[in-house]
Structures are given as structure tokens and as C-alpha cells.
Amino acid sequence: MPCASALRFAGETLASCIVNESLPTVTVIIPARPDMAEVRAVAAARQLDYPPSKLEIILARGQQPSVQRNAALRAAAGEIIYFLDDDSVALPQNLRRGVAQFTSAEVKMVGGPSLCPPEAPWLEQAFALTMGAWLAFFTSCARYRKIGRPRATSEKELILCNLLARRDAMLEMGGFNEKLYPNEENALMDELQKRGGKLIYDPDLVVHRRPRPTFRAFRRMLMNYGRGRAEQFRLHPTIRSAPNFVPPLFCLFLALLPILPKISWCVPAVYGVAVLIQALAVTPCKKLPWSPVVAFLIFTCHICYGLGFWRGCLTKPKPPRATVSAEVKLEKLQSLGT
Predict the structure, then answer these.
(1) Which end of the chain has the least Cβ crowding within 10 Å, N or C?
(2) 266-290: string of b/e by CB count within 10 Å (b at 16+)?
């Protein structure tokens, strides 16, 4: 018996070594502000279940995330890049699960949702429920809750705070468009798909990340999302952005409502009922008193995103100043082969 156990252990060890040897090298890239002392994503990256000799971690400090990510991308040695935001807490199994999706050369990116941790304050949880509502974010609600099974997808369901990508494919595209922030990853994904690349969404490839802490910050985020989408469409027009025109047109409709025929008032009434139903549908039974707040936040999403979109139609995307690129500092926290 002891002999059999020893043989079994040796066999399992050998199999594990063979599997580890076949895994691709990975670079985790985390952008952070210059003065940020504690970067939560770094601690989580160190806990990833992946052979240390095949894992590189780069912290890119600076003032513009697109510039920081591009600088780290050029310095990265890994075949696969794992992009995390500074507050993304990745699950330990994420890397093994993510790289397993790169079975075909056509697969260029793999990502999953960013979920609100259960210990977050109630308002942040309400923000998370709102972002996970289809009526608020349409198909992009998959970025904020687990939906369905692993599948081919588009930029609508993937989010940069939890995204794996082939380094060579990104370098071939020139990295992220530094004129865009946010939406730099969305434009890149669109271009990859135009060239025949495949994107994968895996609902179990999860990071935990807290939403904005205040209503004011939440509104500002929505305005920026709308502005970023408009600027993306101006630089990279695509039919996939068509649904994003709904909120700005809704804002225009509300502005013109006083001079429209009286029958037009049926639209806000139907809209209000739909919003209430959606709020009830996404709010757990134990938190049902939150549903009016969620309904109000869904309405806020449409208005703020729409106004931000109109603003993005009027502003001109500008490349970052040369000093922004010069200020990026790369910290290699872990190197391949160590």
C-alpha cells in the first residue's frame, strides 16, 4: 500500500509538472496612481494559482491608464496579458481558467464580470444591482453580474478591469488608443473582431471590485461612459455602437416632450412601469426595500449616460501630453523564471 501511494503521488506530481510546463507565460498589468500606497490588485495577483516561473507582475504608475497600460504592454514578457484595475481582486483560479480558453489562435481576448463584494456598503450594492440590470446597461450588464455560460461575445460584455489578451495581437494593433479614456478597450476589441479575432466571455472568470462610493461619483462615471462611447464612435464608427444612441435620444425626447403631442406622454408612463419592473426583478427578496432606489438609479443611468454622450459629440479627443507618457513608472514586482 505505501508503495502504491508513493507511485500515485509521483504520477500526480509528474502530471502536474507536464501541465504546468505547457501553460503559456502571463504578465499581469496593473495601472495605479503615483501616490497609491496600497494596491489591492497586487496582493490578489500574488495569490493567483499559476506557476511563479511563468508569471510576471508589472505595476504601472502614472496619470493616464491607457498610457500606463501601453507602456507596460511594451515591456511585458508574457505571451498572455492579464489586465486588472488597481482595485480588482482576482480569484486565485482566474489565470488557469482564462488561459484554458485560448485553445484556438482565433481567440484574442477572454474576460469575465466584475462583481461587487458582499461586504460593500448598501449604496454600493445598489449601484451594482443597477449596473447588472439589462434595462440600465443593456447587454453590458454581463460585465457586472454572471450571465449564462462561456461563449463568444463582443466588446459589449467584456471589461478591462478583468481581461486577458494575447500580447502579440495587441502589439500588432498598436495597443490602446491613448486619445480614448474610457472606451479604449472597446475600440480595440472592435478592431480585433473586424480582423477575424474572437472574444470570449466566461461568467465564472470573476474579480471583486467595489462600485463608486457616492451618488456624485456614480453620476460622474456614467457621464464619462457616455462621453467615451461618443468619442469612440467618432474615431471608430461601428454598427455595434447603435444601441448606445438610445439614451441620448431619450434625453432629447424628454427635452422636447413639452412641445410634443399629448399622446407622447404615454412613453414616459410606459417607461416608468418598465423601470419599476426591472428594479424589482434585479433586487433580491431580502433587499426589496431598495427597489425604489434601484429604479431611480436606472433612470439616472439613462439621463447621465445620454448627457455624457451628447458632450462627447462636441468634445474633440486629444492625445495625452508628452509629459504624461514620460511620467509613467514601471515597477516589475515579479519576473518570469523566478
Answers:
(1) N
(2) eeeeebeeebeebbeebbeeeeeeb
